[in-house]
Amino acid sequence: MAGNQQPRVLQALDMARTQWYHFTAIAIAGMGFFTDAYDLFSISLVVDVIGHRYYGYRDGRPPRGVSAAISVVALCGTVPGQLVFGWLGDKMGRKRIYGYTLILMVACSLASGFSFSKRTGKSVVTVLCFFRFWLGVSIGGDYPLSATIMSEYANKRTRGAFIAAVFAMQGFGNLAAGIVGMIASKAFEKASPDDIDYIWRIVLMIGAIPALLTYYWRMQMPETARYTVLVAKNAKQATSDMSRVLGMHIVPNEEEEAALDDELVGEGDDQYGLFSTEFRRRHGIHLIGTTVCWFVLDVTFYSLNLFMQDIFTVVGVLPSPDEPGNQVTRMIRATGLHTAVALGGTLPGYFFAVAFIDRIGRIKIQLLGFTMMTVFTLCLAIPYDQWQKPKNRVGFVIMYGFTFFFANFGPNTTTFILPAEIFPARLRSTCHGISGAVGKVGAILGVLAFSLMDAHFKALLFVLVGCNLVGIVFTLLLPETKGKSLEEITGETEERQPIDDKAAVVNAAQGVHAVSI
To answer: CB–CB of 60/51 below 8 Å?
Structure first.
């Protein structure tokens, strides 16, 4: 075997046809993202109810600082979560850490709904913020692990679609938050003020259920072959695991297996670390590109998502919370609009990303997304005063939905995919965690800006336009990964010639593939 050729077990994985295990992996990883999105975005729907319950009934909202804390605390938790669990995923293995994030996520999601205190008001909110911080830690950990696992399981032809499909579960979580919020608020529309307390608790707790149901299957997933071969340096175990996962019997050639052990997984000169000069030379510009693009994307995406209700209120699409009327009725209208935007803009964007990511390519889609987000955000900002006229309000909601469509059929999906592809296996989860953590810093800054400057939404929209333009520039620093093996992208190995027909013997009756390695 040539000194630095791709192991045949990884080539078998790259060339594998789309099978049931691919869809199983999407479902297992995707349920975590369903809960991630549900928990991050549902809080914006219930913050008014929390204010109505604990901070008096005059204006129906908590103080501005309290509202900002409730909205941003989970995002603050995602930053250390992505950094720590991303690093652990490279040091201890993807599978070993994967279960811990899910347990923490489910426990803190349920605990958020059980936030009680002997004192009302700020004490209950303090307990809620404590659990939501740790919920954010678990959500942050799920980002690099899910992306890395899916990228390392997938074949090279449809890898982008599979990772995008996992991420698309974020859209279903977002949609579910609106639906559950609408049902819960409708159920308590005529309830007493004390019973209204149940609304936000039910909404926050429901999201834990789908993730909890996948725990067993998450624990049954074998470690990825790329981690086992290239990091743990156990080619035999990888061959055994992939024989079972792929439904084929991989028969290794003794001479080539010995060469694999001696040359490919041995300690080589290219085992550079994250802070080495060699990493900066090979991947430093890539890490700058992924972090900056994710940063500016999250400034826009989370600001517009978490403050959708506030922006719609300022424009006049929703009534003000201090207007006379039932606060629960206002929540029903808000959750209905949230659901409409998710159905009309958010979910279709994810679907388009899954369908076209491996046809158009990551970089073109990211450039298209940032460009169109710039256009539609300008359409919101320039005639901002005109949108407040009653006849134009529906148009404002439509433009708002198009912004989310191109965020998801664009950088919101591709910034998640690219860091899972362009870094070497031993640093892949860490670098994805760094990229995502910087992105969540952008989300935190955007949320705080919208919280503290809610009287200047028009100016803030122009700031988002600038963020999108920065994203366009830094996207140009990133390589296209469509149709390439991970080892070819990162330069860890040279891609082999495809296995010829004589090397692969298929027993159709038994569904067994014997692949000479």
So the answer is: yes
